[in-house]
Fold each of these.
Amino acid sequence: MSVVSAAGSFEESPTRSVGSVSERSGPLANLRGVKWRINLGILPSSYSSIEDLRRVTADSRRRYAEIRRHLLVDPHWHKDGSNSPDLVMDNPLSQNPDSTWGRFFRSAELEKMVDQDLSRLYPEHGSYFQTPGCQGMHELLAPLLYVLHVDVERLSQVRNEHEDHFTDKFDGLSFHENDLTYNFDFKKFLDSMEDEIGSHGNSVKVRSLDELDPEIQTIVQLSDAYGAEGELGIVLSEKFMEHDAYCMFDALMVGSQGSVSMADFFAHSHADGSLTCLLPVIEASSAMYHLLSVADSSLHSHLVELGVEPQYFGLRWLRVLFGREFSLGDLLIIWDEIFASDSSKVNKDTEDDAGSGFGILSSPRGALIAAMAVSMMLYIRSSLLATENATTCLQRLLNFPVNINLKKIIGKTKSLQALALDANLSSSSPPFSGVYNQNNPMVVRGSSLPSESISPRTPLNVVPDSYWEGKWRDLHKAEEQRHDSSGKQNQTQKKRWLEKVKLRLSRTESDPTPRTVDNGTKHSRSSIRRSLLEDLSKELGFEEDSEKDGILEASTEKDQPSVEAEVQRQDSVNREFACTSDERYLTGNAGSEESSSIFSDPASPVSGANDNENDSEKSSVASNSSVDENDRQSHTMPESPPLPVSQTPDDILKDSQSNNDSLEKSQTVRKVLSGKFQWFWKFGRNSAGEETSEKGGVATETKISANNESNQSNSKGASSNDGSCKSSSSSKGETVDQNVMGTLKNLGQSMLEHIQVIESVLQQEHGQLGSRENFSKNVLVGKGQATAVTALKELRKISNLLSEM
Amino acid sequence: MVLVLAIGDLHIPHRASDLPQKFKSMLVPGKIQHIICTGNLSIKEVHDYLKSLCPDLHVTRGEYDEDSRYPETKTLTIGQFKLGICHGHQVIPWGDLDSLAMLQRQLDVDILVTGHTHQFKAYKHEGGVVINPGSATGAYSSFTFDVNPSFVLMDIDGLRVVVYVYELIDGEVKVDKIDFKKTATTRLAH
């Protein structure tokens, strides 16, 4: 394939353009060629002056000239030193592949093929692309060159307007633009010109440039023949279009240290660590389908039903970056967006690098490309869904409609990009992880629901001992991540982390092989959670007094560290408020207002034995917590050391136990806190409003997280001075940075576990319901939720009590 | 970078059955832009074979050619050079430089390609170049049996022509190279 061969010829070049890839608006915003060069990494995105730009430009051009000299063979030129080359080898008809003539003929072959391709390209822009100056490029390069050309046209426009700034006193050498490609005279010319440049001084034109627009000013400076690097540094230059086009093309194909390397799409590449033997382009196509399944599973399933493999059309779409689907003008806009995305790999999760997710989705730019493809498919969704067989479907896909609302597509693409990025964060099979800054929690949530419902409930009876290690690491990581993404309040961080955890839990539920014990993958947790969920669902309402105390103690121990952590962290009152408001959310969702009767009010609109049981449990827990608080605290200190070890296993590793734990703990806690109920309740009421504001950012997920948080907070509340919810969440999120007493930490951990159990219950319930409709997040119905609500209440009570202590 | 193959006097099938294998392996289609053939192919099949190497084939009539439609002489312009072709049996004495120079002046060409002697020759003469590619098959000539297979490849590049001579000596292909430059306005000198 001519594209492959042309790409192959370029791959010989050893140079790479390395640079940061962030777009810089400002005076250069309208010069698309320069902007793209910045985005692709050829020009530095943060340049201090125009001089820098010019210097980098000149350097890159020199590099290209070097390469060209090396690769393009002129058999007439003798190699240095040898005046009489071995004629037997080096004659034109020589069969010897090493001879210069052989190489010459091979490049001539490539030239011919590329010419052929070019002549068929963009027939409507024939005036530009069929001119001799365009020969030697192929479909990816052509738009790049066109963009450069447009830039130069703009330059000449500006030139005409401001002629006095451009008077060129240099004794110009004539130059034939037709000789842009593969002309050896050009090479000699370039050499001679470079020599001339060196002899020029760096006299900057001193004119009143400041009067002009910054943009015009920039253009003038960029094209000043007397600026830095002289002629070679003219950033917008007709003479060096070939060089610049090559640099851009090289950056695009290789993708400076990024994940999107177009060259991969064309040739086999064995990326280190890639577990699959698939061609990268096949992998990217399947990534596209995966993203589609996340975004719109009905269309995805329809396509799969028809047997339309993604690579049928994906190959063409991806390999030329949609060059064949859109007209040139539209394509340039799309490429603007694509290049504007950062191309570097995003390593949000250091958990597993091998085999996780899709390569193309591991960078914003790659994600944008995949998202673009998906949004294109969604654009013609209705017509695709109407097709009956694979042929017509492919026809529709390959003949993308001409009159399209590009803005709409691009907007959708951007929203899907974030989705894609996060979809890739979690590891393998259910490829979706929690979303930190997800703008569309609805989408994520909804998509997660079907997966939840689809997945069979595989009971997990045995949990590996290393689970708690993994969990600890998970928590650590979550904490680190939250710290990394600083700039948010702790509250929101925790909230989101909770959401993330929750989502992971819910999604990984569907994982058929959940038991991957590695560094903090969510699998272990999810598997545990799944088992927990199942057990919990079975054993709702079951209380074991025998376990209560132990759990209570454990939770107490946990609470205390978390409490202290909380003290250091935030205003306790706020947390309290948050917790209670969470509870309010829950209760509200459940259909009942959070009433003063935290203990008594079932708070679940959904009738069900379980709900009532849960409510009662929760209330009892709350009361227990208040009652037992003193006891717990007394127990806390001496028991703290062994707790961490025993804590999580107790809490998590045992399905029934953990399931019961959350309930029982809450119950016991409730008892303990009965005395403090009034105080707790008061706080809860006041905090509702604040909590709402805090959680405003997240939609329905907030509710779930609120559930979780309040659960957590309730479970840990007893020990928390500053606010059980925050403490619990912080303990969940790792109070690593806090020098908290081990006991408190452990207690917090245990409470966390319980809360997570409750979360999982909610998730499961939610998932089951969600299977009916993809986006039914707003519906928080179910026994599990009621249970969670009650548990949360109790936990909150506990926290209040503890804080009072 | 125009490659022109000058070949002739194959005398297939009368005096030789085929080109030497080594020559055949070197002559692959796609590399050569023009073929100049002095004559005496002698049959159509050889013509077709040469045509397969390059579509632009120019043949002049030799005395043993079976196709009588070939011209006696031919001129063509490649790049900056004017080339003339003649078999050479018409020029008497055969292979005499002065007589060939007369023909060259008659045809008004820079490069004259003739054959018939089955001997490779390349002269710079009076502002022109006279090339005799010899016999590609090594067929015996009218006056000698000792003939080495040979042919000529010209690389015309602007004002410069490089002549590669391929000879099969003792079973090995030997290559030689001669440079000729044409000045812009004046003809080639001695």
Note: The interface with chain A takes residues 1, 3, 25-28, 30-31, 153, 155, 157, 162, 164, 166, 173-177 of chain B (CB under 8 Å).
Amino acid sequence: MEVEQKPNDLSTQKFPLPVDSEHKATVFRVHSFAPPHMRAFHISWISFFSCFVSTFAAPPLLPIIRDNLNLTSTDIGNAGIAAVSGAIFARVAMGTACDLFGPRLASSSLILLTAPAVFCSSISNSPVSFLLVRFFTGFSLATFVSTQFWMSSMFTARVVGTANGLAGGWGNLGGGATQLIMPLVFSVIRDIGATKFTAWRIAFFIPALFQTLSAYAVFFLGQDMPDGNYSKLHKSGERHKDNFPQVLYHAVTNYRGWILALTYGYCFGVELTVDNIIAQYFYDRFNVNLRTAGMIAASFGLANIFSRPGGGILSDAVAKRFGMRGRLWTLWMVQTIGGLLCVLLGKVGSLGASVAVMLVFSIFCQAACGLTFGVVPFVSRRSLGIISGMTGGGGNVGAVLTQVILFRGSRFSTETGITLMGIMILCCSLPIWLIYFPQWGGMFHGPSSKGTTEEEYYMSEWSSTERNKGFHQASMKFADNSRSERGKRVESAPAPVDQGTPSPDV
Amino acid sequence: MAAGGFLLALLLLSCLAASSNGVTFSSLQRTLIVRASPTQGQVLKAGEDKITVTWSYNNTFPPGTDSTYKTIKVKLCYAPISQVDRAWRKTVDDLAKDKTCQFKIVAKPYSASNSTITWTIERDTPTATYFLRAYAFNSAEEEVAFGQTTDAHKTTNLFQVEAISGRHASLDIAAICFSSFSVLSLFGFFFIEKRKGKASRQK
């Protein structure tokens, strides 16, 4: 029984931006704050930014903290690993929470639950307590998933890469901004009169308060979908409350999700690792002072302001001409170049050359992150949340693995570790070659000769019983809107005509 | 363009910096006798306890060895046990890169006879095991000799400093209060959300 009551369906005057049949915006206007689409964008990137600031607030102050808490290199390495490992599981859980409860509640809850860890960083007094606060603070990085999910719910296929890239990139900016903010806040507090060992503790209240306030903004100003919040949509029957085991099943059985999780570990995971190690690297190897080390480290993360969004925009741009195949090729090429630059970074021995290589490396590494999330929204419609969560979690797994193998204790010098990390990037980007969409093709093969359509791909996630109940309607609309992934060269099957709901002209 | 010029300047500067030759520790003679008040294994508190240091020239060396000495700097140095797994405190022969002695106690003009100072341990001295070392500098600000309170292997006569924690009761209370407030406001959110959900069902 299909119940479709949408009296305002045809009029787009309900929304400030032009929208498609799912009411997702078809354009992206970064200067606008218009609810619900652009407002959701700004709230989500700002809250995600605050989580990044908190998670990486410790690294620029490590030269002070390591003396206060009597930390060894191993302790510091372990804390850095802990900071990014919590989010592995949290990101997958967040994906599920978004599928079931909506990004607004899911992210504001997580942000408020992790704020205590940031406040309590001020009172840590041993390597163990330091590790614990970094571990729990790191859970907040799962807001990445809600950001991407939210953007994928608000923006249509043509601009989703751009929206995801900007939201993710400007959020990741926090990892760079914090390397500037924390040393600055620290020096101000110390100049007011506090000793070093107290000043860094007070400094942590700044990211903690910022994080708490952003959670309030998400809750009071945000909205899950263009048509309203989940709780309202569930109760009114407009949105069907999905079956979790089924959502999970369709996520874990889609091999593309696993491949993207691995490759994301070697662009985003590398970015997290560098955020953790780079300030200390410049401080210790080149003997610059704390503020300078912070500035150099910051420039790595600050490149995110244009590099990750650039990746997203690039993904959308190549998709216009080459469709999904273009997105995959560009992703692989950019990530591989990033790997080569990383190898080089470990080899250069002078300060100037190091900074230069690091900057170019940051652009490619972060663009690859943006390009990855130009592909993710298309892997699954039903399990978008969990797939986003898996990919995001995979990013953190990459960070953990890399830090455990290369940057813990004193086995490798930091510069050797960086070169080896570059080699790992090169190897772990190869699986992109294996990603294949039957309706659009893969890197080395065109679309399936059987003429699979977008509808068939997305409908395969729903059983016939579920289809009879009409649960798959949202996926059908998405399939229709995703036809742009064929690119300009029409090799894939023509749009189906006999499908119950007639498809409009593309 | 400006960025390219800036990078080039940085490159040149760093090349210049790398090429200057540093004095090595192994080239220095141990011509100074340094004694300090802490005994082996004593634990001192940062910000409270004092150290009295006495140094003088060792007269058994040939006369004229100290002709180039202009200033003496006494420093607080990490013992090997506090350097383990901490690359930022590493001992390196090139004194420009050596990180063993990171805290300057005093700098005084050189005199061959006994000199003494009493120093209160700075509040931001980290918890670690230490010894004291004095360097003699010539007029070009290069190290030319040294003396230390411990033996050549840095195993004897080491003392410990216990740092301040940096924590205050007010900080502890503020942290706990704000944390509780965050969690409580979350419950507030859920309550508001449930009310809104019920309201839309009744519509």
Note: Confidence is low (pLDDT under 50) at residues 1-12, 498-506 of chain A.
